[in-house]
């Protein structure tokens, strides 16, 4: 059994990692740290883990983390970059679920995240952990930047179109909707059920941190800068992201075939039959991205519908998928459960 | 007190009409018909009306309806067109909340609604009941076609931009999201809470009946055919529509000023301050459309956010607004309550 | 127009007061205070009030409050008791929506609320503002203690039974369920939608502050101490309380008649027909309590179902009802809207 | 691999059985029947099963079902009793998830279910499938009556108290709350999200079919008739049952110890620490019942809080647990996943 550490495991990403790792056949969580909850048994905080996880949160401890095969950072932005160098030197592999290593251009990162980067040299080394693009690089990586939730849903939706030059690279629209768990478990009046239940709104129209990440992904795939408008919205539900993607067609393409072929060998991308509309609940709790592609009314506009569970393929599940690749395990190990429907 | 009749009042549109009319200062509901519920007191079906409405549903009755000043049709598509001619001849004014008189081009209507139109000549006479465009015509109308919910939200959002020639008329995108009450109160397994709760999906991407209606509105405003992609989505909540509208800017426009000036005299359109994101709950139960306009990142794309309550400004409330205009009452009579928040 | 002040109007109780008072025919809100939001226009915080309320929050100001006819305290427990004496001396009538004046026995209050009472003498004078019991006293009161939400629902349900000696006074059970708005608008991780959505739980089984209040009410009505078990639960919805009340029958009573007669003249208590089950949505946004009484299987157990909107009859609406009585207005003024259903 | 058949797998119980069996290590679903959906691939109906289950629904087929080791009936009440005799004769073991074999007294069953029983002799043979009571009998059974959802939650909560004679057997109250999935997937206007979302109500106060089942269970445990009032309520959420149970204490008992000892060896009953309040989400998707026991204010009333997922421990999960026992597998095989939280 490989030994796994988690730094900062009290949030939703942390508990989701624990849920997935608790039944993983090849690994074992040996260390989980939290300054605020040190001493608390994990299962006291998250009763769903009673009977599955017996350990308690401890203070961050370099020695214990250094004895792990791989460490996940489920910390706020800006934390991992301070601790990762030491772990890498100790020979530990690292996956950061926050944004510290996602953006290659340091100045862009510093502008959007409002702080100085602590280890810009590692940003160049870090592999962006979207296995559908970077599978081989992830297998050999010491440090993986786990993608954001919106970027995962949007990138997987645009990917086949951009690779095939089937769309204009300007005027792209990503109209994305997320459940509230994406905002985390911090005490925030704006995320009270009394505030966000039975209501719907856009937010961050003038700028959201996932915009440069999506743009970086799409531009790399297209090998040229893309023009993208990204509007996130908040759904009155807990889990799930739905990306509705718009792009202008170039030429005529068999879109269904394009998508099916591109993802034929990907265990976690499921292209639905022509005419389908994926529901977020069809991926609740699982690591799949389900996608449908449409060209309404034989017009020029292509519409892609892409759904993921923001806490799984959008965070902890994708991190486990990356872990599997980095540790030489089966890519799907521990990720074979069935979505909870209804 | 003006005498008001309602044909087909058992659905959500019907009960919403009753809610609004029950406290209206100048009118009185004297007749409400339903074949299936004839004999049932209205308040037995809708306990929120206990103490407010004392009448019972009756079988459709031409004589009693003919004695009304105005009759609302809250019936399925295809019903009003059979009964309206007789009422108009009897001197009764009519508002149809279904789609029978919304589409001017009969062949388009027949294609999307799958039936032959029973009185195409009245379609030409009918006034499309969006007061922000057709106020004067509504005041003089015998027959008003009350707009659909999505068309109301989308049209009010694009209206100032199209009137000012501030956007390209091709490549428009209307990414719209609706609460489940828009699907009505019929027994439909697809709308069970177990099916639509805690989930989100698009539907009708390849074609939805509100597409030709929105396109007709926008083309009339633009005085030329517009290119529009319309994708409706289903929200896991009961009331509210959020339209996220995308269009490419032409030239430079002070968008905030444009919207504020266009709607300065409209009692039911509220332009939010620059940078705002309207929430659907801010219009829950009321007849307002709240709108914000953005131009993210100084790019070419303009994003309009437009919210309404699909049962009020998107149906019964707008019908009451139209009634007020047709009967010479104050446009806002009976529509001055405050949205229920939280 | 009577002049009304509100102290501490930023929470859900405050915005609900504003919603109700904005359309009240006989009063006008002239002052609203908030230390944290002083200077902010009320409608910036609560967009549903745009166009209805033009004033801004100000710092607490004794002079301006002293010029009001009546002042509502929508403050945390322990605040009103410090400020009320001064206002009463200035001739202002006061309604406290918190708990400072609800419990007659000072030591009980101090034990449950964990602080010393600042003006115990006023507790004796304060009238408990449940109009269905204390209507005349409220009309003459300077100071009214507005009841808690659970106590309102539970007391109105047990009231006819206890007055008629139709039940044992021991072994009473009040199994109560509340929407999340009852917990207020403070930043509290436990009330995030991610925590309370799609889940249900009891809380405070070993003791909740509304227990002594309910017990005081029932014991006064019964003229003897009652034995009561009270278990509150948290519903995954925003508004509404449902009290399910259990008591052992004494003798044979026509329960339906008992309830109908007791509440025949009460404008805000609606006894449903025999066999009915009130839904919380039937009172959403309105000041009614709807009640049904059952005696299942001809057994000894009587079951009462009582629903209110916790923010209306359970807080702001009942406060307005009390205000109407205290100011000599019609008891139902400003409270005649219809519940929002669906 | 044992061969498993499912009769009537299109409802929520059916899809939940498929979800659990899809990853079960020791069994394989070889036949699934549905008259209405014959020919439809299972994964077309339930997209969460894409990639997990490749078979299609077929018409009921005695031969294919007869070749199974065990067959589940996920059919409406009254269906299994007609088909079970033939299967038993063919040597197939059977678990009925409906109510046909739950009630021992035929006349009581016929009264509550409104039909004549087709094989009363098999009712006597059938074992009531609550493993925490009948584990050994289940291991040897040919035919198991899988318990109802409310009866499971309520019986497990009262069980230790009744076995230890720690409560009065009269005046028991079971105030139970269920998510909407308990009502199934049939087209029923009363279960639309527009009807049951954001609202809460009791139902069936005068009589619910689970009442005789709970009463039978409790009376058997107590070895005497018990007096029970059972009130079910409908929660605005999808999965989960919360039973709040009230009973009068007899003598003094260490309740925490009593519950912990009774369930020490049960893999699917989790007694929470003293003072805890179980949340339904802590068992979402898993086969556990989590229980807390309280004696508020040192009074006579004992309050038990018991939560299950109505589709798992309340239906399909308990059925799999019973299957494991009947087929000589590990009781927990296929049931070791972690609840989905949040």
Automatic annotation (TrEMBL), chains A, B, C, D:
Reaction(s) catalysed (UniProt annotation): N-acetyl-L-glutamate 5-semialdehyde + phosphate + NADP(+) = N-acetyl-L-glutamyl 5-phosphate + NADPH + H(+)
EC number: 1.2.1.38
Residues the record marks as active site: 149
Pathway: Amino-acid biosynthesis; L-arginine biosynthesis; N(2)-acetyl-L-ornithine from L-glutamate: step 3/4
Entry keyword set: Amino-acid biosynthesis, Arginine biosynthesis, Cytoplasm, NADP, Oxidoreductase
Oxidoreductase in keyword set: yes
Pfam families: Semialdhyde_dh, Semialdhyde_dhC_1
All copies of domain Semialdehyde dehydrogenase NAD-binding, residue ranges: 3-141
InterPro entries attached to this UniProt entry: AGPR (IPR050085), AGPR_AS (IPR023013), AGPR_dimerisation_dom (IPR058924), AGPR_type-1 (IPR000706), NAD(P)-bd_dom_sf (IPR036291), Semialdehyde_DH_NAD-bd (IPR000534)
GO cellular component: cytoplasm
Top-level EC class as recorded in UniProt: oxidoreductase
A biological process from GO: L-arginine biosynthetic process
SMART domains linked: Semialdhyde_dh
Cellular location(s): Cytoplasm
GO molecular function, one term: NAD binding
Described purpose of this protein according to its UniProt entry: Catalyzes the NADPH-dependent reduction of N-acetyl-5-glutamyl phosphate to yield N-acetyl-L-glutamate 5-semialdehyde.
PANTHER family xref list: N-ACETYL-GAMMA-GLUTAMYL-PHOSPHATE REDUCTASE, CHLOROPLASTIC-RELATED (PTHR32338:SF10), N-ACETYL-GAMMA-GLUTAMYL-PHOSPHATE REDUCTASE, CHLOROPLASTIC-RELATED-RELATED (PTHR32338)
Family of the protein in this entry: Belongs to the NAGSA dehydrogenase family. Type 1 subfamily.
Name recorded for this polypeptide: N-acetyl-gamma-glutamyl-phosphate reductase
Taxonomy of the source species: Bacteria, Pseudomonadati, Pseudomonadota, Gammaproteobacteria, sulfur-oxidizing symbionts
